[in-house]
Amino acid sequence: MSLLEIDNLSLAIGGTPILNEVSLSVAPGEIVAVTGESGSGKSMTALAVMGLLPSDARASGAIDLDGADILSSTEAEMCRLRGSAVGMVFQEPMTALNPVMTIGDQVAETILVHKAMSPEAARQRAREMLDRVGLPAGRFPMSRYPHELSGGQRQRVVIAMAIALRPKLLIADEPTTALDVTTQAQILDLLKSLVADFEMGLLMITHDLAVVAHLADRIVVMRRGDVVETGETAELLAHMQHPYTKMLFQASTHKVSLPVPPAPEPLLQVRNVVRDYRLPRTRLFAPVEHFRAVNDVSFVLNRGERLGLVGESGCGKSTLTRAVLGLEPVQSGAILLDGLPVHAGGAPDISVRRKMQVVFQDPFGSFNPRHRVDRLVTEPFHLLDEPPRGAARKEAIAEALTAVGLHPDDARKYIHEFSGGQRQRIAIARALIIRPELIVFDEAVSALDVSVRAQILDLLAELCGAYDLTYLFISHDLSVVRTVTDRVLVMRAGQIVEQGDTEAVFQNPQHPYTRSLIAAAPQLPEPALAS
Amino acid sequence: MLRYSLKRLISLVLSLVVASLVIFLVIEVAPGDPASFMLGINAQPDTVAALRSELGLDVPKWQRYLDWAGGMLIGDFGTSYTYRTPVSEMIADRLWVSLPLALFALTISTLVAFPAGIYAASRRGRAGDAAVMGATQLGVAIPNFWFAMMMVLVFAINLRWFSAGGFAGWDKGILAGLHSLTLPAISLALPQAAILARVMRSSLLDILGEDFMRTARAKGLSRGQALWRHGVRNALIPVLTIIGLQFSFLLAGAIIIEQVFYLPGLGRLVFQAISSRDLIVVESVVMLLVFSVITVNFVVDLAYALVDPRLRRRS
Fold first, then answer.
1. d(CA A216, nearest CA chain B) in Å
2. CA dihedral A48, A54, A57, A59 (to 10 degrees)
3. pLDDT given for residue A111 in this prediction
4. Phi and psi, residue A121, nearest 5°
5. Which residues, 6 or more positions from A296, have their beta carbon under 8 angstroms from its beta carbon?
6. How many angstroms separate the CA of residue A328 from the nearest CA in chain B?
7. What are phi and psi of A35, to 5 degrees?
8. Minimal-distance CA residue of chain A relative to B214
9. How many Cα atoms are found within 13 Å in the side-chain-facing hemisphere of A13?
10. Measured between beta carbons, which residues in chain B are less than 8 angstroms from residue A50?
11. pLDDT number for residue A283
């Protein structure tokens, strides 16, 4: 007997079809993972179960949750079900909690809104739930506010809220996507143990196949609103039927082959760099205290070499990146590009700066939406003393766009006409156009779907061959760093704890932190790789 | 919270010192000698000099600043050049009209704007939203002196519910005083309420799109419960800023409405003092207004901290 039974669910929002006859089921105590790329309709399936679809959505088919017919339930009936029969955990823990309400009140609210207990009993239960999700009373009193907690701790609060009334079904929509690998591993363990303890069904929405492979009892693969394949995890991983499933798994372990780097000749030299930030005074006349974000970091990046930088959030990799780009002064040490300091006299040195370009993470936020592509990709020209004009400029644009696999005619389009992957290509074209000596990729493929990410990684490998690229590749994703870099730096709490040839570090990590990082990163099991 | 308040208090005092210096200097460099202005163009130089020394205009500037600023600390604002009465008395009389009027208007505007803004946000894109937005558009567009005159026509002249102008004074009781301030307060509140309702609406709409509102719904809160329990408090922060600005404006900016209703308020006092070069009155009233603006900002800062726990750091 299933707990949740979705039968031929079709959905259209404002006339656009989103889901097409989706059927799936979750049994008590079972973990079902719905996976697929963005736009596959996996999140909408979850919201349909919650009855939280946008107001212009039209659904047909049937959703049966423990005997309740969701699609024909009234709003009042749905309010009674949400939180008590089905709980939900969302992707972004940083914004999923009300910032002006204590965590205790927010957990207790789930209980109180359903009038399930007296206020005292509700607070008692809220405390138990916070304990259960790993937030003990000593360190995490109920009076804490969300801003006093880290992302992983906030996600635990969200989980406590969702399970406070022991719902039969828990829906988790990308619950660990925004978290570091070690935190992700802890949250996944927590979810797994909750399912076992409470005999809950868990419907897990995720794009991360490695997470799916380790956690789920069954997998549902979706593409563009269709369920393309479904089966027991081990069975499905061993015998994938649908070409899309195969492509998805191959893309998420995509490997590229880089050309051999030339003989070592230093390009970027970072010597004993220290970057301090002032902390706000704790008392009016208290001495100013500092937070050391980057602590005595030294490394060399050779010409033609691809260097990776990995570490969890808050480890100082973004600060180090900004310092390398000359955007911020450092308190001591030196950063030299081609022997010259990147930051001199309170400003980035423009003659050095023109030798570096950067590609950022967010393909949607890093372009001015009012400019056309030709203007966007030629932005770095302002670094040049004599930027190309007229025909030379046109030629440069066409060449850069062609190099990243776009068409020269795309130059006259606006950025909103492109997909995320195409935008990231444009970002790379913008970085390439002045032929920099060094490109910094700051989480440049982290926001992309696996199939698009595989294409961008291929493009990088191609460009390495064609342009002798030297780059610094910053990422939290170890599998990506492993394939696109020659050497890797592991950063933790402002310091580089390990560095070496990428393959050597991954195969035989020396520092305990590197070992824990690699151990926490979920990996696809061998049978999936073999097929 | 205590530390936060103390920090705000120190910045309040520093702002007052800087403001008093600026006001003094700006008014001192303005052309026009009060003594020669009061005596007319045919006055003898020695008469003017005598008056200057009587008014205390012949001592060095820094000493006059210290006398003025020090006097204000103990409530002595000096003597008006024109009326020869203590400035503090003149201000106190007017403040008893202007302050209640501003508070009255602000209360009306808040009472109208909050429900209107919340209602419009909760019915975004529907008829109720369009109606509220249309009304606020009108409220901003209608000149309030014209609206005041229309209200006089309807409620004072035709219906005879209120008097057309003047102030009854507080000695006849609070109700009588409020009664004579009702029409002016409504006229003042109209545009303020319209602006405030729009700010409330857009601030709440931003909040309604936040992730934690979806979390609240997933817990089983109805749309309305989520709006009231999680939306409104978060939406208050920008709204408080606007209320603070509006109060300062209402205290001094009521001059036209005071004119329409023949109210002896601060706005009229400043206007008269400027036209007769009564510098000491101008300085004192402007200083008082600055004081009220800074104090209101201080109160708004404290209100922020009450609303938003992120501002009060745990010690």
1. 23
2. 10
3. 93
4. -65, -35
5. A272, A273, A274, A333, A495
6. 27
7. -130, 160
8. A96
9. 13
10. 218
11. 66
Give me the mean pLDDT over the A347-353 stretch: 81
pLDDT digits (tens, 9 = 90+) for B23-63: 888 877 766 677 777 777 777 888 888 877 777 777 788 88
Phi-psi region of B136 (alpha: psi -120 to 50; beta: other; left: phi over 0): alpha
Average pLDDT over residues A26-50: 91
Q: How far is B72 from chain A (nearest CA, A)?
A: 29
- H-assigned helices in A199-256: 209-215, 233-238, 243-252
Whether B216 contacts chain A with CB within 8 A: yes
Compute and round to an integer the Cα radius of gyration of chain B.
Answer: 24
Q: How many CB atoms lie within 10 A of CB B202?
A: 16
A76 in reach of chain B (CB within 8 A): yes
Between CA A381 and CA A398 the distance in angstroms is 15
pLDDT score recorded for residue A373: 93
Query: B314 falls in which pLDDT band (50, 70, 90)?
Result: very low
Q: Which element (helix H / strand E) includes A57?
A: strand A57-65
Q: Please list, in sequence order, all residues whose beta carbon lies within 8 angstroms of the beta carbon of residue A356, skipping any fewer than 6 positions away.
A: A324, A325, A326, A337, A342, A436, A437, A438, A439, A440
Rounded average pLDDT over A424-449: 89
Q: Full-prediction pTM beyond 0.90?
A: no
Portion 140-199 of A in contact with B at CB < 8 A = 145, 147-148, 158, 161-162
* Residue-range domain boundaries for chain B: 94-275
Residues of A in contact with B222 (CB under 8 A): 75-76, 79
Judged by a CB distance cut-off of 8 A, whether residue A109 touches chain B is yes
Residue B309, H or E segment = none
- Nearest to residue A222, comparing CAs of A455, A51, A32, A55? A32
Report ipTM for this prediction.
Answer: 0.81
CA distances in angstroms from B288 to A372, B9, B188, B283, B296, listed in the order given: 54, 17, 21, 9, 12
CA distance A191 to A27: 16
Mind spelling out the 3-state secondary structure of A92-116?
CCCCCCCCCCCHHHHHHHHHHHCCC
pLDDT at A264 over 50: yes
CA gyration radius, chain A: 25
Residues from chain A contacting residue B308 (CB–CB below 8 Å): 99-100
Which residue in A81, A96, A147 is closest to B212 by CB distance? A96
The pLDDT tens digits of the residues spanning B270-310 come to 888 888 878 788 888 888 888 888 888 888 888 888 888 88
Q: Which residues pair with B198 in a beta bridge?
A: none
**A387: helix, strand or coil:** coil
Interface membership of B276 toward A (CB under 8 Å) = no
Token output for A267: 């390009």
- Cα distances (angstroms) measured from residue B72 to each of B6, B54, B98, B271, B288: 23, 20, 20, 21, 10
How far apart (Å, rounded) are the C-alpha atoms in residues B123 and A100? 24
Say if CB A515 and CB A509 are below 8 A apart: yes
CATH class of the domain comprising B94-275: mainly alpha
Q: Touching check for B163 and chain A: CB below 8 Å? A: no
Q: Which of residues 272-301 of A touch B (CB under 8 A)?
A: 282-284
Q: Are the beta carbons of A99 and B212 separated by less than 8 Å?
A: yes
Mutation for testing the A interface, residue in B129, B219, B234 having most A CBs under 10 Å: B219
| Mean pLDDT, residues A414-426 | 88
- Residue pairs between chains A and B whose CB atoms are closer than 8 Å: 82
